[in-house]
């Protein structure tokens, strides 16, 4: 949910707005503020459905670009460039609109040395938000809310982590299917952008460990992974420059589903 507000909302108001039974219903609330930095179009704050401020939301960032366009803050079609800069909790990001109407956001570099390989099936990395990635053979039969909740609490405690369950495609090494349990929502969501990025990187590393050829992700040849999620398909592109995943770009569609005035 992306909002244009004149007074800050309280955590209780955000919680009530996100409630799916008695509120509007959302995985979180995004607030666009004026940025103090020259050249930045806005500053983005992200709150989970529990009302608390959290880390980066990849899909929310893409939605905020569409929202900024809708309220006239940016004119991607006539700006001369289809790319803007915005601030988020983890620093600056590029975002924009592609020919065909999809929106993308660039994610900050990830060092291979910062990716924890827990064991063959489990990885942990931060793509703006913390993500546990578990590889499974049968995604549709996986108890995502149950096992996700257990990993989120037993392994990561109060601080928590998002937990992604990933099934690799047997036919296409550049395609994965993902379901995500999100902390702060405390349930499975339909799609998670930073989770898609974390899963694509972990899948790439897992292929490397398994010594399976997956095509190259080099500084010249960005690798694109198609990430299938219940809410739709996202694409994650990145390059591998030495020890660093760089030029990480998350792209996909954005759909306007609801609008209204909130009386608080
Ligand atoms: N719930 C997450 C952050 C949200 C991630 C988001 N769904 C995305 O699209 O990236 C957290 O608190 O870490």
TrEMBL record:
Q: Which UniProt keywords apply?
A: Isomerase
Asked whether the UniProt record includes Disulfide bond among its keywords, one would answer: no
Q: Which named protein is this?
A: Diaminopimelate epimerase
Under Pfam families, the record lists: DAP_epimerase
Q: Quote the Gene3D superfamilies the UniProt record gives.
A: Diaminopimelate Epimerase, Chain A, domain 1
Question: What GO CC terms are in its UniProt record?
Answer: cytosol
The yes or no answer to whether the keyword Isomerase is present is yes
Say which family it is in. Belongs to the diaminopimelate epimerase family.
This protein's source sits in the domain of life called Eukaryota
Biological-process GO terms, alphabetical = lysine biosynthetic process via diaminopimelate
GO MF, one annotated term: diaminopimelate epimerase activity
């Amino acid at each position: 949910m992306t909002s244009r507000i004149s007074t800050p909302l309280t955590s209780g108001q955000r919680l009530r707005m996100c409630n799916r039974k008695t509120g509007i219903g959302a995985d979180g609330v995004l607030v666009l503020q004026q940025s103090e930095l020259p050249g930045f179009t806005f500053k983005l704050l992200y709150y989970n459905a529990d009302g608390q401020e959290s880390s980066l939301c990849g899909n929310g960032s893409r939605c905020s670009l569409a929202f900024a366009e809708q309220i006239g803050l940016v004119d991607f079609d006539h700006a001369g460039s289809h790319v803007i800069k915005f601030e988020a909790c983890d620093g600056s990001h590029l975002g924009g609109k592609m020919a065909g109407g999809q929106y993308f956001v660039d994610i900050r570099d990830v060092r291979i040395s910062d990716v924890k390989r827990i064991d063959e099936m489990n990885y942990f990395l931060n793509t703006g938000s913390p993500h546990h990635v578990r590889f499974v053979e049968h995604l549709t039969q996986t108890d995502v809310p149950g096992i996700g909740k257990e990993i989120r609490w037993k392994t990561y405690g109060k601080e928590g982590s998002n937990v992604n369950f990933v099934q690799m495609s047997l036919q296409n090494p550049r395609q994965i299917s993902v379901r995500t349990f999100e902390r702060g929502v405390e349930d499975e969501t339909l799609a998670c952008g930073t989770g898609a990025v974390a899963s694509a990187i972990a899948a790439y590393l897992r292929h490397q460990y398994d010594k399976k050829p997956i095509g190259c992700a080099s500084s010249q040849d960005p690798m694109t992974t198609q990430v299938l999620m219940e809410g739709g398909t996202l694409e994650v592109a990145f390059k591998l420059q030495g020890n660093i995943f760089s030029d990480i770009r998350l792209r996909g569609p954005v759909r306007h589903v609801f609008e209204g005035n909130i009386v608080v």
